[in-house]
Write a structure and sequence with these properties.
It is a single chain. With 378 residues, this protein is of the alpha/beta class. It has 2 domains: 16-77, DNA polymerase, domain 1, CATH 1.10.150.530; 81-365, TIM Barrel (Alpha-Beta Barrel). It contains 11 helices and 14 strands. It has helices at 25-34, 40-51, 65-74, 134-138, 146-163, 184-195, 215-224, 238-244, 253-266, 286-295, 321-333; strands at 18-19, 75-76, 81-87, 93-98, 104-111, 116-119, 123-125, 140-143, 171-174, 207-211, 228-232, 272-278, 301-307, 337-340. The strands form 3 sheets. A 10-stranded mixed beta sheet has the order 3-4-5-6-9-10-11-12-13-14. Strands 1-2 form a two-stranded parallel ribbon. Helix 6 links the parallel strand 9 (171-174) and strand 10. The radius of gyration is 21 Å and the shape is globular. The protein binds S-adenosyl-L-homocysteine.
Length: 378
């Protein structure tokens, strides 16, 4: 039996051909079932594609000749291609990858003593309108496919192997361009590949999805995944959050916190990481710190203060170092584990909110909400 596999195709797929990098283990099992093959083929393919990173079917020596012929007929393997890469003085590495359709995205590798964190993008641009983020100013073009998301991990690990310095991707954070929960359909299979023991085999604790709070998809995620969650909070009350994270007008804090409580209830012994960008004179007073401490009471939490990274045209400045320290110590005194994110890769524009890629904006920027809501946000 060799009927055409029934799998969602992404735009750009050759007619009738499935990009195998779009499929997690379940997807591959369905693909092989449609070809009349056994489920274990999925594991073989995962190992070739993601562990050995061999993309050529003819080199997959444990597949029969006839199965290889079927793969040529029904499948293909397509990755984003590197345009250039840069290494920062602090060892941070940034790759610009070009995508079909003429866009580009950026992926950043942040080496630390005992780990290597890859910051991965989920969309070309972003449709949310956080006022302190330069990706927001680029507008939104499209969602990345699963292949384009996992392709960033594929590509980074291959490039690190080629360096021969023994550096490895041990952690992935979905904190690059885009709102991961607005691209739920493609992001979730990519995170499954990250944690699949036959693909990248990362611990669930070491894969972190960062969201500005698309509540319906956050609730859905709670039932389907147990990767780590980071939430871009940035303000301790609705009035201020409405202003700087405008998606809050749609999903206010009470709803967001409720969905977060549900998420941790499903992932025992886990904490939510709250991201809080430090904006001088905007959200960084003692009163804000106390309000934040009250707001998060009872939720297993870790607070990550992010010094604001400026970009051309930004309307904010970063809070002074002493202010950040004081804010941090107030939260610590209230019993919260609080860290201040060290800014990395600034000299190569690789820091938070500095990733811009090449985005041709397909939505008009203002007014954002209500007209062109991303998937699942309605
Ligand atoms: N859309 C997702 C992930 C992308 S950004 C989210 O909102 O969580 C990852 C983190 O960097 C978010 O917490 C984001 O708010 C923060 N960030 C964005 N711009 C920044 C800037 N200019 N300086 C510091 N942090 C920024």
């Amino acid at each position: 039996m060799s009927s055409a596999p029934v799998v969602d195709a992404n735009p750009g797929d050759a007619p009738g051909r499935v990009n195998l990098l779009d499929l997690d283990r379940q997807g591959l099992q369905r693909f092989f079932a449609d070809l009349g093959e056994k489920p274990f083929r999925a594991v073989q393919l995962l190992k070739w594609l993601h562990q050995r990173r061999v993309l050529d079917f003819e080199s997959m020596t444990d597949l029969s000749k006839s199965l290889r012929a079927q793969l040529h007929q029904h499948a293909e393997v397509r990755l984003p291609s590197p345009v250039f890469d840069q290494e920062s003085r602090d060892g941070t590495r940034k790759w610009v990858l070009s995508l079909e359709g003429g866009n580009a995205i950026e992926t950043v590798f942040i080496p630390e003593n005992d780990r290597g964190t890859l910051c991965v993008s989920s969309q070309v641009g972003c449709a949310l309108d956080c006022t302190f983020c330069s990706t927001a100013q680029q507008g939104f073009n499209r969602n990345l496919s699963t292949a384009e998301i996992i392709g960033q991990v594929w590509f980074a690990q291959s490039a690190l192997d080629a360096e021969g310095r023994g550096r490895r991707v041990t952690n992935v954070v979905l904190m690059g361009m885009g709102e991961p929960l607005a691209n739920y359909r493609n992001v979730v299979p990519a995170t499954r590949l990250m944690v699949d023991q036959h693909a990248y085999g990362l611990s669930r604790r070491r894969v972190t999805l960062s969201t500005s709070g698309l509540v319906p998809n956050l609730r859905r995620l709670a039932g389907e995944s147990d990767i780590s969650l980071a939430v871009s909070l940035h303000a301790p009350n609705d009035a201020l959050r409405d202003e700087i994270v405008p998606v809050n007008r749609r999903y206010p804090l009470a709803e967001l916190l409720d969905a977060c409580r549900q998420y941790v209830a499903n992932t025992p012994h886990r904490r939510i990481t709250w991201e809080y960008v430090m904006l001088d004179g905007v959200n960084d007073s003692d009163a804000h710190a106390r309000e934040l401490a009250r707001l998060l009471e009872g939720i297993p939490s870790k607070i990550n203060l992010i010094p604001f990274n400026p970009f051309p045209g930004a309307a904010y400045e970063c809070s002074p170092a002493e202010r950040i320290q004081r804010f941090s110590s107030l939260l610590q005194r209230a019993g919260y584990i609080t860290t201040v994110r060290r800014t990395r890769g600034e000299d190569i524009d690789g820091a938070c909110g500095q990733l811009v890629g090449e985005v041709s904006d397909r939505i008009r920027r203002h007014p954002r909400w209500g007209r062109s809501a991303p998937e699942g946000a309605a």
